Hints:
A: 170 residues; CATH 2.40.50; five-stranded mixed barrel; B: Peroxisomal Thiolase, Chain A, domain 1; nine-stranded mixed beta sheet
Amino acid sequence: MSDETEKLKESAEESKKKFGSPIVVDQKTSSSLWFDQRELNVRYLISINRIKKFYEELSKGKVMATKCNKCGEIYFPPQSYCNKCGSNSMSWIELSGSGELLTYTIINVKPQSFSHYPDYAIGIAKMPQGVNVLAWIDGDVRSLRVGMKVRLEVKRRDPEGYLTYWIKPE
Amino acid sequence: MRRVGIIGASYTKFGERFDSNMQELAWEAFNDALKEANIEKDSVDYSIVSNMGGWSSESLPAVIVSEGLGINPKGSVRVEAACASGSAAIKLAHDIIASGQADVVLALGVEKMRESPTKTIVEYIGRAGNFMWEFENFGLTFPGYYALYATAYMSKYGAKEEDLCEVAVKNHYYGSLNEKAQFTNRITLEKCMSSPYVAWPLKLYDCSPITDGAAAVLLASENFIKEHKSEAVWISGIGYATGTANLSKRDDFSGLDAARRAALQAYAKAGINPDRPASQLDLAEVHDCFTIAEVMAYEDLGFAKKGEGIKLVKEKQTYIGGLIPVNLDGGLKAKGHPIGATGESMIAELYHQLLGKVKGGRQADIKNGRALAHNVGGTGHYAYVTILSLDRSDHA
């Protein structure tokens, strides 16, 4: 819960005791607001069943894309079917070698679920295989330049402790 | 296909509308539009409610709105095209009337973003892309998506943060003349430049705010307009396109492909020369969710050549009296950006501009009788370009 919400909750609890209803008053506008008594927590279950090999290869330190066996189209993020020619026959290729940093940003104002991280840099790299990869950049943000050479690196993301891929300046 | 006109339009005061709930906001916009159109609410055959939601409590906004406006049982639907939801509602309303299935359709956008705390809203809008491969693992935010464009644009064309801030200065200036704007304060370049980074290189004053608000547009058939002798502004062309969900699947980060495609379609439909559209339009509303977005819009719409959008800003060509006035209501930046209602509010502004009804020193000179609204959803995920005209026969 954010500090903002925490304060409102305290004020609503006080209002319930004194007044009988969870009503809070906005400081700026003096408007009365009902403080919702029902909380919704959301966490999704997302199918990765048809691209499970991506995660198997990630555990070996490789970042993989899919390639259509019929027309040769390459997909990253990996896709289990080809919407260009209609084929469902795909194979896996590794995204490796030296890529180019197309653009980047530093996230200063973070979403609630990322608020435990220090400011992070996100980039998009064009890989020699012809597809782009968006990921966090592992490196000194002051040295970043559009067009610089980068490669992909797989390592564990803390504090969640799961494997993911980074863009690393060469 | 029948011609379709707008007979009334309005938007509420934008801002932190803690004083009103969703139904009250919708009513405020609808009631004003109805009075302007001088029709009874029973004339409305169907309604389309644009709303993004998630941050607000109501799961079925279209039925909440229909009940609140007292237009049951006429039929309704909620549409979502992210920040372009309002223009999507206008397009569908247009098509329903043009095809002869209804005579009067209401497009109503409403958003109650402030029912949730800021961090939750940042969380929701950050998910406006590809969830797994952008948000879940990398925590993109909405300013972050546009910051990726800003970095690439600045690097390619040598634009500076100061240049982007000039857009904010302009839009705050016009916001100060619009009593319905969320921000009615003027700002200096220094104020913008000294504001904290939100997603480098974008700063707080490069960003549109979190906004509550509603906007209503009443559209009607040619026959209805003739019978009721309504004062109308006509829709002469709507262009639309989509872009990849995942930003990494794009090659160019200096403009929005979907917006360029939507513009060309709209120009073709309205009979506007795509090589010099600014000379055939009196003003434009463009989607300045971030300052970089307004600069890219100038180029995507053909008001400036690639890389020269920043020149229009520096030369103040998008103020009244310049090449083409843009966002005379303060834009998303100062007027505010209640996601689902933004599109209708753009159309409402242009409707009043074309009819010469705007007060407060921000009325554009109307010579061509034509105006354009450029409404982008997400980061070029959806794009709608709508051209309005005073001339009923004005279409290709």
